[in-house]
């Protein structure tokens, strides 16, 4: 390595000794090799330990080499860069392994039969069955929750940004912030005591949707609020100066300008509630049969299905396979929704081309 | 849509003479004081703005020129905490009377802002049509004509006639500003307020807009705020000089007179100091 490194003090004040461009990669490869070597030699079982040893080696060797060859300031720069890279990998590894695991295990029983059949009268330990009932339940509950939460959330955000002044606006902001932190089980218990215990209604998809709407609303308000704040005031003024009333300005200028961001925010909220299990468990109850009516009788939902397949099957491999396949379906569903939302956002976003 | 044969077309040629004369209106301001919350921005301003002329407001930054301009079409109260005392009469009608709807005031008195602000979600055509469309009172068949007339009126038609469906934000800064002027004149206001319309533009675009102001004053009453004194001298018939006694103090109208007189022989010493650069 030494031939590539200029250790002599150069004459120019602008030039200094630099590590070659490939140095970080070589150090990374060396660290990984050393990490594996130490792990094998020390008989460490956990691969996580191997990885951590490699990460620490990478940061330390980068720093020492840079400090020796390049000097203190560059060494600090290198240490910051290498820490960022290590942190990035640490964040990505669980994500990638999660998706890998879900795909690898979920793909086994995921087919059209699985998607178009309910569990029916199958026992949870039997082979066969599917998630049609749970898919319908999730789509209906999330759809209803979205229908309830998005208009309210959107209008609240519009009030906060365009009209809200003084105490009422501050109070609304405060309660939205508080609502953001509500645990899903609390939202479920609230609807349970209010809708089912006090009003005497039965378990239904709609009851679950109400709890999901409570969870969704603050997320929609927050993201919409941020997006509306990004709309330049000049556009509002331009519209008002044309003699356009305020409500039309908001409807025709402010909202179209920010519709891309608002859609993304709504989709993130949808993704959040689509994975909720607790309120569904309390309010929708679960149902192995197909129930397409969300307003009457228990339904199923994907997260609840996954939980029940795991919890009620006494370790039956068939149930585990179904749970993984349902998890994969849920991830794909949310991913598709996200892609659609991004498509809408791109299609609707302000155009800059000539 | 008919294709243009001549490079520029004046809207006034298409209209009967009476209609042209009716369009511009006189503004009489009496004892106007404007506040932002508890802060008094301008104090006790009285002046007359003549119809079919260009009135320029000059003065140092923060002296309340823009604030005063915005009180003339009730845009001042759009700012949170903005309120006004005193009277603004448009041909004898008080704009701040309790029965007056600010929306109607703004349809009568249009405004062009310092920075070009075309609506980013709309095409060039839609930008010009925005005022009519968003107000809802238009006939579909007339829309194309109004857009063409307005773009011709803003000297932009020849540059954009082949790409009316392209987004307005794709134009250059000067074109965007003329698009904003076209948008403002499309709703046929009687007065046009311009808040430093050329401050973000290069000299050539500035020249285009100044020429345009010269044409527009045949039909509109124009009030323009500018930091460029040569510009005030070039385009305006009357010039008002604003000043403030100290930072934090409200701005006041020092004097208003014919532009020629303001720039040759002003009656107040402060005006001469400001114009000749001996200020402060």
Straight-line N-to-C gap of chain A: 51 Å
Beta-strand fraction estimate of chain A:
under 5%
| Rounded mean pLDDT score of chain B | 86
Reading off the top of the CATH hierarchy, the class of the largest domain in chain A is best stated as: Mainly Alpha
Number of E strands of chain B: 10
Query: Based on CA inertia axes, which overall geometry of chain B fits?
Result: globular
N-to-C series of helices and strands of chain A: HHHHHHHHHHHHH
Instruction: Classify the beta-strand content of chain B into a percent band.
Output: 15-25%
The assigned structural class of chain B equals: alpha/beta
Helix proportion of chain B: 25-40%
Describe the fold and architecture.
The complex is a heterodimer of chains A (354) and B (280). Chain A has 354 residues and is an all-alpha fold. In chain A, 73% of the residues lie in helices and 0% in strands. Chain A has helices spanning 23-42, 47-69, 72-106, 112-116, 132-163, 166-180, 184-198, 205-230, 233-241, 246-274, 278-283, 302-311, 317-348. Chain B has helices spanning 11-14, 17-23, 65-71, 102-108, 124-135, 140-153, 157-160, 173-186, 203-216, 229-235, 259-264, 269-276; strands at 27-36, 39-49, 54-58, 82-90, 93-94, 109-112, 191-195, 221-225, 238-244, 251-258. Chain B has a 6-stranded mixed sheet, with helices on both faces. Chain B has a 4-stranded antiparallel sheet with strand order 2-1-4-5, with helices on one face. The model of chain B is unreliable at 1-21 (pLDDT under 50). At the A-B interface, helix 9 and helix 10 of A face helix 4, helix 5 and helix 8 of B.
